[in-house]
């Protein structure tokens, strides 16, 4: 169980699928993207790039620096963070880095293919906190298969919003239909002074959160799936209002 923090927002965009991870890394290789690397408890930094990805051998090869003392600290580190912070944000952590010699006799860093990584598109990264007093409601309809004319609802309260999705709280106990990977159609979000959306939402991440009063809630990270232009307009107007209100209050 975790306490909510700013970093918990990133968890909604963790990729676990191996094929997706390989594709992300190969894109970094193809585009010759420079990666920021930090280790030694954040005391050491350098830049590198992906040389090649060998999915069959579960290995990724990266450029290595020339400073042997620096490299020794790097290879002795148990936690090394690789990140791309411009445009689409990408980050993962590796351990047990080794030095290898490639076929062209050049030295390189070898890491195991990451088990997971974070990939956040720019439009999804800028999240805005929604009001805690009178929180924005999100209503998820659940059809009754035995009686199509009736349906029940899952009620959520928003905690943040972006152009790519929402973060919301669900009470404990969690509804059994709210699981990672589940999608729901015709979800209604009532944005104050803007309007009501009708969206398809995909559950990306669920995390239990301990509240200050000792109670437990579940933070649900949800992605908008192919929102219509009308819904996009509502979301954009609401996020604009939040930004304007924040600047006015500053």
Automatic annotation (TrEMBL):
Keywords: Bacterial flagellum, Cell projection, Cilium, Flagellum, Nucleotide-binding
Domain Type III secretion system flagellar brake protein YcgR PilZN: 13-119
Gene source species: mine drainage metagenome
Annotated GO MF terms: cyclic-di-GMP binding
Domain PilZ: 121-240
Name of the gene this protein is made from: ycgR_13
Name of protein: Flagellar brake protein YcgR
GO biological process: regulation of bacterial-type flagellum-dependent cell motility by regulation of motor speed
